Batch of 3 targets.
Target 1
Amino acid sequence: MYVTAAFPGTGGRLKAEPEDFQVVELPAYEPVGEGPHQYLEVTKRDLTTPELLRRMARALEVRSEDIGYAGLKDRQAVTTQRISVPLGADLSRLAGLENVLEVKLLGQHHNKLRRGHLRGNRFRVRVREAVVERASAIAEELRRTGWANRFGAQRFGRGGENLEGGMQLLREGRSRLPHWKRNLLVSSVQSELFNRYLDERFRDGLFDRVLLGDVCGRLPAGSLFLAADPVAEQERLERFEISPTGPIFGFKMMRASGPSNQREEDLLAASELTWEAFRPLKAQGSRRRIRLPLEPFSLRAEASDLVFEFELPPGSYATVLLDEFLKSGQLAEESAADLSD
């Protein structure tokens, strides 16, 4: 599903080299100068975040669970992110780690870094051998309409194996799998159901409309609220002040009301799942904005290459946005193989 389906894609090659896909994590806060954790800024190349953490733990001779991070980053890329390690760890041991380009000490903090402790990510992406003259029209359309905040293929594992396992887990209601594996499988189901919800709204012409009872969220972040006056909220949507949200199903998820709630109930029933199926697996649920503005964003052509620079909020997928331009089908395949986010 493309918001810009009426516009032909640029094609092109993504991630021909790791340097073609550069990511810099945007921190939620800075170290305060004291505390039991040291914050580092680590730049890596062609390396997943989990493997980076394993190598750091071995080098520092600390437990893996004592190392903190805010978000997973792509493997086939050059990425810069923050990592926390225990105070007193000998940072000189990190010198010469394979695929680690640079380690900077930022300072101390009271908190270990946790997933989600970031403001977003900044991207610089080169797409090689593209039909560059097609890109500007797609960008202009996305500036007008916004883009669909789908989950990327990384979420579902190779061949969708995480999704299949998650569905089975939720229907059976029990498992002896480790905690992290259960969370991974359930998250895959939640992500798939969100994507189905977004696709249904798009097919019904409701991608950029506010329904009575929608759970809406302020942009780029902020509180959630029920839309009691769709006409008034529609004006705010068109100014990109708010977006409707879709369900990340769970037993504590904020529910919509009216016709919007019925859409979510029907989706859950069609998947042969119930609200209570999420409780034994401690999946609380949340909401996710379905429509994001194309801002900040820039695009330029360099011969037959396109160079994109943009920022995304936490949890949004650069490959989903880029596929609005390429429309080549390669992004889903490459993202699933990367398995980094």
Target 2
Amino acid sequence: MPTVVDLATITDDCLDIFIDKLQEKGESNDKLNKLKEDDNYEGIKEALIPDGYNMIVTPKEIDDLIVNMGSVVARGINMSLQQC
């Protein structure tokens, strides 16, 4: 389960959503269609990192997620050791 995501990934996903909204309104053109088809992650990453804009983001409920994942892993280890 991913606990962090970088800004380039978020930007790429937002770009796809934005283009979808333009297409729904009929405001899309060939350039936007090509932009949506391409994988823009590397290009976005190259644009952000040299200027120091790339960052790592965590969900607001990260503390609860980590506690829950730790509990699941601990239970799995306990159950596997009790079987021996």
Target 3
Amino acid sequence: MRGWITNPWGRPRFLPVIAWLYLVWSIVPVLIAVQFSFNTTRSTSVWHGFSTRWYWGDPVYSVWNNPGLRGALSQSLKLAAIDVVIATPIGVMLALGLARWRGRGSGASNFLMLFPLVTPEIVMGVSLLLLFTQLRPFTAISTGTAAQILGHVTFSISFVVVIVRGRLFSIGREYEEAAADLGASPTVALLRVLMPLLTPAIVASAAIVFAISIDDFVISQWLSNGPNTTTVPIVIYSATRGQPLPSTNAIATIMVLITLASVVAGFAVYRLFTRDERAQRPAAQGFADLGL
């Protein structure tokens, strides 16, 4: 038995167990919360039967009939969509600039680009609040939807840059140089050669930005200014501090489904655009094995 356990050439025995334990630990609480969103009664701890009451059946407290819940869901979707539209193009351009920039200040620029990733979100939220309420040039942007959009874009750009730069480094400069040898201008090489190759990374980064933005709590909370700018994470946090209804679980379930749908759609598009690359790898490996 000891030899079977300590055999360095055997198949992994404990890593799958640890992986499955982690999955169970992280997924089971979510599934329990989803289950009680279909509970017949107001209880969030005792199961009394299946019902869609808290989604559209209840005339007062269901997600469909509660203006506060519908408004929070609409605000979350609006912030996430606008964040994707603004942060993704800026992040792509910033990634291209940082990947191709080789001069004085490039190192500092790369550090500043990563700074939002390592800054605690509570610090960023407080800093943005002080920026929009205390510094005179920025007080024209009061707290609310505009401030929330700027806050989401600020911390989302770094994720786009990291993903797109990784794709840039894996592609290399060979395709651009080949296009230049064939007479393509830098603009044509960028639009006709490099951008199609970057499409999988752009789609993946857009999906991640959407998922991060729609689930954000700290920045949305600090930059909100009333019920009209309340998002779903804020509603869930406020409800859990009192006596939450299953409608809170219902709107949380809707958020989980929307987030999963965005990530799955991004992954599907990524697989579609990288299908030719995956088909070419076995052939390339075969030629390499033959020494060709």
